[in-house]
Amino acid sequence: MPRYAMTIDLSRCMGCRACMVACKVENNTPEGHFWMYVFRFEEDEFPRTRIWFLPRPCQHCDNAPCVKVCPVGARYKREDGLVLTDFQRCIGCRYCEVACPYGVNYFHWKHPNKAQYLDYNDDPEVRERTGGAMPPYRNPDQDVRYGQERRLTAGSAHYRGVIGKCTFCVHRVEKGLEPACVANCPVRVFEFGDLDDPDSAVSQKLRSSPHFRLLEEEGTEPRVFYLNGTPPSPDVREVMPVKGGRRS
Amino acid sequence: MSGRAITLPYGVGRITPGWLALVGAAAALVGLGAFAYAQQEIHGHIVTGLRDWGSMGGAPWGLYVSFIVYFVGVSFAGITVAAFIRLLRLDYLRPISRAAEILTIVSLILAAFSVLADLGQPWRGIVNLFRYARPQSPFFGTFTMVIAGYLFASLVYFYLAGRRDAYLMAQHDSPLRWFYRMWAAGYRDTPQERERHQRTSFWLALGIIPLLIIAHSTLGLVFGLMGGRPGWFSALQAPGFVVLAGISGIGHIVVIAALLRWALGTPERPAMAAFRWLGLALLVLGLIYVYFTLVEMMTTGYAGREHEQELAKLILTSYYAPYFWVGMGTLAVAIGLLAVQALSGRWSIPLLVVSGVLVNVTAVAKRLIIVVPSLTHGSLLPYGTGMYIPTWVEGSIIAGLMGLGALMILLFMKIFPIMEVPEPSGAEEVRG
Amino acid sequence: MISQRALVALMVLAAGVAVMVVSYFLLAAPWGFPPEAEDFSNPRLPFAPLIFIVGVMMAFAAAIVYELWPERRRG
Q1: Helices in B304-391 by DSSP H: which ranges?
Q2: Beta partners for residue A52, in sequence order
Q3: End-to-end alpha carbon distance in chain A
Q4: Would you call A207 exposed, middle or buried from its count of C-beta atoms within 10 A (0-12, 13-18, 19+)?
Q5: E strand or H helix that includes residue B32
Q6: What's residue A189's pLDDT?
Q7: pLDDT at C75 (0 to 100)
Q8: Which of B112, B69, B11 is nearest to B430 (CA)?
Q9: Helices (H), chain A
């Protein structure tokens, strides 16, 4: 059984947020839902101002507070380390959202189909104009039940009134692919792989680079390791945030 | 059967214009709440002011969760008063026992409905909670012990305590005679049965007290176990919830007792001794709560983490300060009024009612202060701050629930005596 | 000598407590420190929480049993 983890190289990240877009397209997350989010931070004062960037996926913690508090076990941790949400069991209490210290959970305040982008419903006019070059936006992989447990856990476009978060692209991982953010980053900030495999990219990176985990003091034991950087200090300021999802 | 019209005790069966007006007002509120809930069912929770915290800058828990806690809190006092009557033999409290029991039952039902209003998938919630609920989640205790266990235990207590009055009511020819007979279930009001009921309710009260502590502590633990939420993570949440529950519940009972005393005007009405006991209990609990608040403020101020200190400053001095100080201010005024009465030995029912209302304002304000600021301003990662403004949907659903509670009590008053009927003096007629 | 009604009521109470203990510790989802696998998110038996609630209700219903148990006919 692999033990999946992700490394994020902060010295490479240039804050382009391509990973945010890739995640959104891959998982069909509705407006305002950023399963992958990238902070743009500014520190200190001119002329010593420093700008740096911090991608924030779900940390898939080993001691996940969201798993502990879910009243019905819809949020659960798999043996391979992925923390997933069963969209058919979730009752929408949002306890996982308030328990998570990282803010990675997004609740479907309205039906996800009503808050989408592009040709979500496979508009035939788009297909005709592009000659089929542009694939339909809605990802059919999210309708498949994954894992031995056969639960509906991938993608976002299912029900209203349930919660969603980064799944490490379980529907891709099950096929042996990398998560969308990892595959689409232009400067290879991310690595994803098996911690128990000493030759995997994550194991090699962890051996060769200094690393930290976010909010280590909370005891959540995240599976996301940040390389070549330091945790955000109390004086850091977020600039250029990506808001959204507030309007009805 | 005698042709003489029998009046049943305490206005049972008698529809008055005043009662109809109250029922109409309550029903109007219920209608408004139902309309608002329909909007929420059609469009989803997007019609509320709730949003995700973090990058979306909102609060995922707000009015609904605050009132879930508030309604469960109010339910505390009902059965506690009933329990104290049995355990400490406080007979002068007996006239308010049934009203207190009704308050517990009604407010637990309102709490359950508030939960359903808050859930994104309420119908699924009903099935999945019974099917999959996990003991490791603090919500397990809230669901099983509070809403199921506590409600059932209170219903059992209420049913058994009402059998004697059901038997007395069944002596008269009335449209609901079949109902009274069913409730009485063969009760004969013999000394042996009365003594048996005393014993049963003693042990039942003894069993309900630990359930009460568990129920309210579990609700406190929902918040107190959240290590990653500044302002929530505290060992004081559970005991604080128990104490504030007692405060809001006894505040309600004071108001209800005053209403009974005024509306019924019979010699069996609640005596001043009952009000004195309630006032003292409210004073003691209020002082304990002030103590808890001071300890919490001192601990945070002395050695709290940076995020906790920032949040405390926000609540005490800036953005949320009005709500906090209104809440503590009303508590301070209530404590002042109660202390003056306690020290002088002269109790005034209007002042007690004012105290009862004020402490409920405290309870609502404090619940909101517990739930919302940590979500809008308490993130450990440097997201921007958030904002939460409830919409008319949330307000209407809460108002509708309160109307529903009032409606249930009003309807109950007309089918069953709201106070225990005194021993019949031998004559057929019972005062009403 | 314990009366028949007291005996039955105590049995109902004991049964209720037994049902609560068994359903909480053996049938519902186990506690996990940390909750590192799917087992900690599923009950061992579906509807174990309902069984738990039934146990709570049985324990308190013992009071009803005690009061409503029919009187023994004399002679």
Answers
A1: 306-317, 321-344, 349-377
A2: A41
A3: 43
A4: exposed
A5: helix B17-43
A6: 97
A7: 45
A8: B11
A9: 18-27, 65-69, 95-99, 124-130, 170-173, 180-184, 201-208
Subunit contact B153:C60, Cβ cutoff 8 A: yes
**Total tally of structural domains belonging to chain A:** 1
Tell me which chain B residues have a C-beta less than 8 angstroms from the C-beta of A64: none
Domain B9-415, what fold? Formate dehydrogenase/DMSO reductase fold (1.20.1630)
Query: Where do the DSSP E strands lie in chain A?
Result: 4-9, 37-43, 50-56, 75-77, 83-85, 106-107, 163-164, 190-194, 211-212, 224-227, 237-239
Residue A248 resides in a domain: no
Give me the helix-helix angle, B321-344 and B272-303, nearest 10°: 140
Q: What is the CATH number of the domain that holds A106?
A: 3.30.70.20
Residue at A74 is within a domain: yes
Percent of chain A whose pLDDT exceeds 70 = 95
Residues 6+ apart with CB under 8 A from B169: B8, B9, B12, B176, B177, B180, B416, B417, B421
- Non-local CB neighbours of B231 within 8 Å, separated by 6+ positions: B308, B311, B312, B315, B370, B373, B374, B378
- Ordered by start, the domain boundaries in chain B are 9-415
Separation CA B390–CA B366 (nearest Å)? 16
The answer to the question of residue A244 being in a domain is no
Residues of A in contact with C42 (CB under 8 A): 73, 76
Number of Cβ within a 10 Å radius of residue B155: 17
Whether residue A154 lies inside any domain: the answer is: yes
Helix axes B63-88, B392-415, angle to 10 degrees: 30
Interface partners of chain C (CB pairs < 8 Å, 3 or more) are A, B
Q: Which chains touch B (3 or more CB pairs under 8 A)?
A: A, C
Query: Where in the sequence is the domain holding A128, given as residue range(s)?
Result: 4-239
Is B73 in contact with B245 (CB distance < 8 Å)? Answer: yes
**For A146, which DSSP code?**
B
Cα–Cα distance between B243 and B296 in angstroms, integer? 14
3-class SS of residue C5: helix
Question: pLDDT for A175-224, tens place per residue?
Answer: 999 999 999 999 999 999 999 999 999 999 999 999 999 999 999 999 99
Give residue B1's pLDDT.
Answer: 39
Judged by CB atoms within 8 Å, which residues 121-180 of A form the interface with C?
149
Low-confidence ranges of chain B (pLDDT < 50): 1-4, 425-432
- Tell me: ipTM over 0.90: yes
Q: For residues A71-100, give the mean pLDDT.
A: 96
User: What pLDDT was estimated at residue A114?
Assistant: 84
